[in-house]
Amino acid sequence: GRAVAQGAEVAVVESVKAASEIYAPVSGTVTAVNHALESEPALVNSAAESDGWFLRLAIASDSELSALMDATAYQNYVESLH
To answer: Is 7 left (phi over 0), alpha (psi -120 to 50) or beta?
Structure first.
């Protein structure tokens, strides 16, 4: 039920070497948290598009969606980093 703003920190991922913040892609209200990550954090890497989700949000404003990348744009962005 926590309200979050677009760009606000919603989670932290810790590894042996570092801690990385996870930011909300859109504003909304948290409706679910993936507690499976507590016992199996590797799901973030091994099942990123299925069981490795962090949280679910009820979106506050559909207008924020237009600023997000679709899968093709994201793939192109990642490839441009190499």
So the answer is: left
Residue 67: strand, helix, or coil:
helix
Residue 27 phi/psi, 5° resolution?
-80, 150
Beta strands per DSSP E along 1-82:
3-4, 9-14, 19-23, 28-33, 55-59
Predicted TM-score (pTM) above 0.85: no
**10-residue mean pLDDT series, the chain (82 residues):** 96 90 97 95 92 96 94 96 92
Report yes or no: 60 and 26 within 8 Å, Cβ to Cβ.
yes
For 9, 34, 42, 43, 58, the CA distances from 39, given in Å and listed in that order, are: 22, 10, 9, 10, 25
9-26 per-position pLDDT tens digit: 999 988 889 999 999 999
Tell me which residue has tokens 């590894």.
15
